[in-house]
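G.,

No rush on this.
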Amino acid sequence: MAELTTQGKPGNILLWANEKGEFVRKNSQFRNFISAADGALYPPEANRYHLYISLACPWAHRTLIVRNLKGLDKIIGLSIVHYHMKELGWEFRGDEEGCIPDPINNHKYLRDLYFITEPNYNGRYTVPVLFDKKSNKIVNNESSEIIRMFNSEFNEFSSNPELNLYPSHLQSEIDEINEVIYNGINNGVYKAGFATSQEAYEENAQLVYKTLLAVEKILKDNEYVCGNVLTEADIRLFTSIIRFDPVYYGHFKCNLISVRELPGLSSWLKRIYSIPGIKDTVNMEHIKKHYYMSHLQINPTGIVPLYNGEFVG
């Protein structure tokens, strides 16, 4: 996530708390939609759009997974920022394994994409970014919308068009569970980790714990979150759960229970990880180094703890 930096200045994410001491996430600002509908401003085209991500960021990670699962890697380009976020935000570097520089404008920082889109931009420089090479502007920087576009709007170019992660008969159920998972896990871990008061921390750490138990109950009897079919709800949950024991458990103090202690969730995590196209999107080195080296308000020494690598169950 890129909330550490705004307006090109060093940002203290702990200052984003409300009076209660609770972290408040800002809304994404670029919300255009790629659509096959007649007259759409951004129609689906091969090799027109480019995806900018961080392998460390769970929100960006979900877009990479759907790009892979739908077989869009040949028609939607990819750039990957460096894991260590410093004063100017996400940086493009080619000297680290897993990083892919910006081939469109050869920018040094992700924030440059925001300024060429909106010269007076005054907000966060976040990943993911879905960029239009034709207009040289950001189309969208909201991960939940980008995965919907990848799922449905590029099927004529997809090598796996039959995969539908948001089937019509499950949409209400998916939307409902997405909301629970977002509040209690996806965003809940950040609200616990970035809390600036004991009350806010305890409230949100408890919410994370209760939500994990609720998901565990679902997955003890089901192969996937919404029954026996893979949906976007699984993808949205996976990118948080894969980070939970190595990062959120300790770094964000969400330590009331670990994924390892939840057999249903652990088995589900291994199941999702083993799906072709997903394992290759997980880079635990980028994940660990980003959180522990970039969040100096939480981890002032920047020391990255050792981990045995058994992060799937």
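When you get to it, here's the other one too:
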Amino acid sequence: MTILRGRSFTARDFDRESGQKAVIANEAFAHYYFGEADPIGQRFGYNAAGDESEIVGVVKDAKHNSLRERAQGAVYGPGFGQRDTTFQLRTAADPTRIIAAVRQAAREIDANLPLYNIKTLAKQVDESLAQERLISALSSFFSFNSSPMR
């Protein structure tokens, strides 16, 4: 994701003992909560325990589930072991060939970290457009069958 303002995560952000709770917000989140004010350095609470995080960077909005969805406000944190965490990797190699290496690296970090639903970006895009492709195919089929024969 492209950093627009601020910084990316540093090694210190991954240190659970430091107490630092750095997050990176997307444009939609920053605009919704802070308007035109600079969100870098802003703090906000996110749970009933009163824990606060500090925004250290802002990234471009991204679509997470569907190409049709509108950008939702989101914050990204460096925490491992959180429920429903998504990791995205970029590689110059064939993405299907690095899955075993990714699984091994995750096991080295946390042997209990479950990895599931691993797929390439191309596969995600194909799945996201499946409904449009079906409608297009059905429309073509019915328009072909309804055209008068000469």
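DSSP finds four helices and five strands in the chain. The radius of gyration is 21 Å.

Enjoy the weekend,
O.
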